[in-house]
Amino acid sequence: MKHTLSYHWRLFLPLATILCIVFGLIIYYQYKREADYRAQIFGSELELIDNRILNAYEEDVNLRTFLNFIQKFFKGSIFEGVRVSVYYDDQLQYSLGTPIPIDNDGLTLRGYGLDNTHAADSAGSRRIVAGRTVGSDEDGNRYLFSKTESSDGRVTIRTAMPYSDNVHDAIDVDSTVWLVIIGCLLTTLLVTYYLTRILSRNVILLKDFAYRATTGGRFTGEDKFPRNELGDISREIVKLYRERLKAMELIKKERKIAIHAIEEKVKITRQLTNNINHEIKTPVGIIRGYLESIIADPEMDTATRNRFLDRMLMNVERLTDLLNDVSTMTRLENGADMIAVEKIDIHELVYQIESDLPANNLSGNLEFTFDIPLECNVSGNYNLLQGMICGLIRNAAIHSGGTEAGLRMISENKRFYVFSFYDNGNGVSPEHIPHLFERFYRVDTGRSRKMGGTGLGLPIVKSTITSLGGTISVHNRSTGGLEFIFTLPKWTEDN
Q: Strand 367-371 and strand 404-412: pairing?
């Protein structure tokens, strides 16, 4: 496995290298400048000795006395042991210490910035012709030499300073400077390391986030992002990613629900088709049998023929009711959004249904009553609501076995009226309750067929209620019979 440096080190190392190079150049420049300055100061002291001797010579001061004074003056100082030789027309006149050959120029002390120079002083009375150099005398001892001439070139002064450790330390840069420089460099590198670590933290955390996002892991490091612009951007990236994941999960869930709904719809449609085929086959088979009997027996007596025709008519009517109910179910399920709603006064609608019961014999032997307040206006469709209430009455008449049925409003809230349709019949066994609204479900198959039921009455009732925005449920009454509780939305001016 290939190992690579982390982003932090790849950011820190180039910066540290650049800083070290910059510091090195600055250190070299400052060191050279400091060394030159120290050497210049030290060399100036030697020049000062030469200039004082020249001044004494020009003022006709006894040089031997002056040189003895210089020797005593510098005793115990760094300049103790200085050698001075005075030449007049290249002849040695005075000497302090071992004479210095006039032609000994030594070696240039370039390491300390001391170079040979040829310059006149401000008065123009003397010049430095050899400057300050480091060389060796005839015994091999190292000295710092200085050579000064008068302006006329007749007087030459040679000065030699023993190049001792004290002289070296005076010229060399103080070691404390190196400690300060190294300390500053280390401090700068530490600060750079800390700053690059802060800058790289976002990248490292984003890399961890990208890895976890790719592998499906969970990222919990939002609070580790620094509180700056990069940290804010990183947190926004994580937030957008999680919102996208939530949206994808929601889409996936909705898609799953949609697929399940489609599958259920296909399943229900298939079951409905099979049930319709089964329900149609029975009346069609009966009709066909009676027709074949009539055709096969032309001499059939009139009473028998009429009885067969009545049975055929009854099954035709049953087939017609079945097709009408199937058409209603299809319209409610596939065209619920197309149903036109209007203001319906339930009291007036139920009153009209009750008035028509004797004529259409819809309730059979049941006595139907209602208790609905005036101006009970709902948002609905007149024909659908009429068919729904008639369906409940007809269902009670066929299946309840009771003598009474009724409809009443039991409560209301801001949006809905709550109604109860009940009968005093036999009710049904608890295991049948969850299936009463299923298509073609019959509690008593033989009796239902005999009474002409299609098995779609209660499913149509439920589809009507739900398509209008209400709900419906059913349970056995404690006093006997069934009770249907359903809601219908109130009519408002915004409908």
A: parallel
